[in-house]
Every structure is written in structure tokens, then in C-alpha cells.
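Suppose a classmate hands you a notebook page containing two proteins, each written out with its sequence and a corresponding row of C-alpha cells. How would you begin to make sense of it? This section walks through that situation. The first entry is reproduced here exactly as it would appear on such a page.
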Amino acid sequence: MVSSTSTNGVSKGCATKKLNSELRKPHKVLGVEFAPINIPLERRKQTLAVLTWTALFFFSGPGGPVILVYTFFFTRLWPLSLLYAIWIVYDRNTCNVGSRKNGTITKFFKNWVLWKYYVRYFPIKLVKTAELDPKRNYLLASHPHGILASGTFASFSTEANKVSTVFPNIQFNMLTLPLNFYLPIYRELCLGHGLCSAKKESMNYLLSHPDGGRGAVLVPGGAQESLESHPGKYVVQLKKRKGFVKVALQNGSPLVPIYCFGENDIYDQVNNPDGSLLRGFQNKVMELFTFAPLFFTGRGIFQYNYGILPRRHPIFVVVGAPIDVEKVESPTNDQIDSLHSKYMQALQNLFDKHKSEFAHSDAQLKII
């Protein structure tokens, strides 16, 4: 009797484990891979966090102006819309003078619990390879842009990876398109996370802080580099990007190379080689509006084949050693070219040193 009961218990246990295993396996229907039913709560929270931020990123930008106009013309809340429009005009220069101060609102945004689950989703890891002196101001250049610059944003505009502990006494401000600060609602998200305009005057403000301790984080490749974002590719737009080098020279700010391994692997993008009709269209739009129309796909909420959510893939944000820069208020072209070449070599060395650990030994960085 005891033996029989024990055997039944084992059988039931095995059956339960088998059922749970089956429920956790993706299921294919007509070639589409659907998420399993029995997903751990932790992973559900991670997906929800990524869904929340992706929706805010893609829809609050174009949605903000629509909401503002609709509220003004078609509701009794038009006085609030008018006041907010006045506030945007009044507050228009904040993005050029260090963004929002590190007050309650900024701390709330940067420590938002959403970010904890967001970085675990991929996951995103911040890798420190050298110390940064908090008495200096730094210009950090991050590559590649990818579709969303997810690794750079999560690492330096949030506290999810405890950047203030990794690099103590340094306040980091990520730089982005000036256009973003004219979009209602979306601009508040940017400023709440400490983002600043990528204008020269904004960079000079950050890098001229008299007590040091500021880090301006730029993605030099910008929109043009996002067009090169394809899984398994390591392409950065840098050979003609020298403006940030000139700013570093003028301020005597050390340059810090950053490479985000895995950034290009979280989305697929429609093939758009140079010379193609699609690339020509993308370049034309980018010339007119400063941003590139991207045709990409990731995964959905309940299936893994299509959608705007990024795919789960590790992103390693590797921060290199600072390149010391002597201040030259009016640098010559030769001085700019010399420092630019030195920076490109430092980025190449950083990539080669860590590619075996965070990508694969055969990975080749292509600088164009």
C-alpha cells in the first residue's frame, strides 16, 4: 500500500513537471511562435516594463501635440492646454542648460521601478573598465545607435544599473535631438530623465562645469547610424563625425569611448543597403526632418515573430578608459583630425579587447 501510494505520488509529480514544461514551451501556429502560457511572473513584469516604455517612446512623441491641440479646441480644458503651451515656450532653454536639476521629479524618473524590470528583460549590463575622476568633465561617445539606443539610455539616464555607484559623484546627461524638446509630454519624459539637447551650446554648458563631475553622453552616429542597425553587424558612423571631437578640445574634456555589444541584435530591420531605393528615401527624409524612418520589427506581447517590442538579447555597455584632451579654444583641423584618429583607434581597441567575451572572436568592427 505504501509502495503504491509512493509510486502514484512520483507519477503525479512527474506528470505535473511535464505539464509545466509543456506550458512553458513556445507554441507554433501557422509559422508564428506564440509565447507559452505558464510564464513566470518575473518575466511578465519585464515584458510589461518594456511594453510601457516602448509605447511611451513611440506614441507620446506624435501623440503629445495631438492631445494638446484636441484639448485646446474641443474640450473645456483649453485653459490648461494654453498654460502648458506657454510653459513649453518659457522652459524651452532648459535642455541647453543641464536639463532638470537632480530634484524629486528627476530622482523619481531615474529610480522608477519600471527600469529595474526593463534592464532585466534583455538584460542590460554596465561594464566599467576604468575609473573616471569626479573632478573632471567628460564627453562620452556611445556606439552603435541601434534602433532605440536602449543600452545607452538605460545605463546613463536611469539608475537601473546603479550608474551613480559605478561612477560615483558624476552626473550623466544623455544628449538627444533638439526636436524632442518641442514635443508636448514627450519633452517632460526626456527632461525628467536628465536628457539634454545635442546642440553645441548644450554640450559646452555641461563640459564647462567649474567643479567637474559632469558626463555628457553622446551617440555620435545618430539617425544615420540607426540605418546600419542589423543583427550580427558591427557598423558605426564615425569617420566624418568630428564635431564632438572639436567640442572636447575646446573644453579640454577627456573623451570616453563606449561600445554597446548587442544593441543591434534586439530588432530586425528591412534590408536597406547603400544605393537602394529604400535607403535613398530614408536619407531624403532624414535631410528634411533630422530623423530617419526605420522599417523594423521585433516581437509582440504574445508572440515572438513580429511587433514593436525589442527581442530579448543581452546588451553589454562597455565603458572604455578616458582619452586625455588638452584644452585648445581654437583647434586647427590637424589637431581635430589627430584626436579623431586617436579616438577611433581607442574605440577599435575597446571592441577588439571585449568582443570575445560579449560577442564572438570573429566579430569585426566596421567604421564608416
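The notebook's second entry, a different protein, reads as follows.
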Amino acid sequence: MTVKRMAAENTSSVTEFILVGLTEQSELQIPFFIVFLGFYVVTAVGNLGLITLIGLNSHLHIPMYFFLLNLSFIDFSYSTTLTPKMLVGFVLRKNIISYAGCMTQFFFFCFFVFSESYILSAMAYDRYVAICKPLLYRVTMSPQVCSYLLSGVYGMGVFGAVAHMGNLQFITFCADNIINHYMCDIIPLLELSCNSSFINLLVVFVVVTIGIGVPIVTIFISYGFILSSILHISSKEGRSKAFSTCTSHIIVVSLFFGSGAFMYLKPPSSLPLAQGKVSSVFYTAVVPMLNPLIYSLRNKDVKIALKKTLSRKVFL
């Protein structure tokens, strides 16, 4: 069912929404515009650059970087889904988004956030196989297996988006169309509805738990086995080398799931709106910007690939 059809079938009298934005203080609008424009430029250059780097260097064509390429694609995509509209809100007095536009933004936001959760768990599984079963790594993480894992990642993205959209289809929006946020998100939308109930919030909690809880459990189990294997390595150098391959992933996982869980795995009444906006900014604007920097600055293979690519360009 398309977003437009879903919009048409909803008995809501609302045809458009007004996004309040990150702040209503006029003196902060231009400084925020400059800051978040800078964030978006760094996000776009960093993630697209990492995708290009992995594509151009054959020694990076292994499962770990296959998943990293998709992580960069997801980060760039969901940042692009949200940030341009947020930037518009800093320069316009009234940031209007149509009902269909709001539902479309929300659908793709859910799709990419769920996909990111599961791509991070797939990356944790890849590190588990590489460290705990190194002799079977090529067989276990074959191209076919990687394709299956990636299909599961995007399949869960579709599930998360459809589940949340289905939840919204059962609510009605009346006269109030002002969303006190910089994007169309599930909690602000439920607060605007005339007939949302405990069931709608319960569905949100269950879907988010599947989107955040299941990947977190997978990641914890993977790192439990990884830690056990590292502790059994006799040499200090070997332990350090094994752990260093996981540090970038651990940092990224902590940033993403920490801010996401803080935002969604709490009752809406217990989280002040200002804190909710800050948490949203962190995982929608800051985390996608930091991910390529973390993997570039802490990864020896990526540094070597970058030097080779730059030297190749200089030579040409």
C-alpha cells in the first residue's frame, strides 16, 4: 500500500503539518543552520567517500568492509531523509510538510534506522566469526551468506517501517497539526492524534524493542564469545590485535543504541520534550557524521586505502 493511498484512507481532517523545529528561539536559528549544514556536509563527504574508497580498493572487498559500505549507505540515506527538512526549518518562519510528505519521511526514517540496527548486529557476527572461528571464516562468511544477512537487514528495515505505518493508520488527526519536533516521528504524531490509546504506545514499544532489543542481544552474545576467545589468546600482542579490530564497532554501537534506547525505550511522559529532541539530534545527525570518521581514523586498512587512492590521483 503506497503512502499516498494510506494518506487518502485516513479519515483525518489534517492535510499538512507544521514542524516547530529544534528550537523556537530566533537568535539560535542561523547558528544552528550553519552547525547542522556543516554536520550534513561532513556526513555526506565522509560516508560517500568511504563507499567510494571501499569500491575502488580490491583488498577491502571482504565481508567486514561489505557491511561497512552498507552502513555508510544507510547513514547517508537517513541523514538525507531528515537533515534537509530540518535546515529548511531554520530559515523559514513556518516549516510546512504535507501529510503525504510527513508519512514518506517517517517511513524512510524507520526503514533506515531499523536497517542500521541490524547491519550493526551483522557486523558483530562477522567479528565473532573472524576472531572465534578464523579457520572457517571464508566458508562461514561466504558471499552467499553475506547476501542472506544483508537481505535480512533490509527485510527488518521494511518490517519496522510497515509496522509503524500500520500503527499510524488506525489513528485520526483532528484540528491540531503542529508537530513540536524537527521531523515526523512516532511519539509526536501520536500526541497529535484524537484517538491514540495505550495500544498504540504498546505497539510502538514492541516494534522498537524488536528493532533495538534483538540486535543488542545479538551484539552482546557475539561480544561475549569474542571476549572469551580473546582472553584465551596467550600473547599480549595477539590479544591487543584481536581487540583492536572490534573497538570501532563497539564505539559506533554504543553511540547509536545508547541514544536510541534513551529516546524510545522510555514512557513518553518520563522524557521531557527538549531532551527527546537532543537525543534525536544525536542519533540522526551526529552519529551518521561520526561513523565514517571513527572507522577511518581507527582503521589501518582504511588509512592505507586512502593513501593509495590519494597517491594514485596525484600521480595521474
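A careful reader of the second entry would note: The two ends are 50 Å apart (CA to CA).
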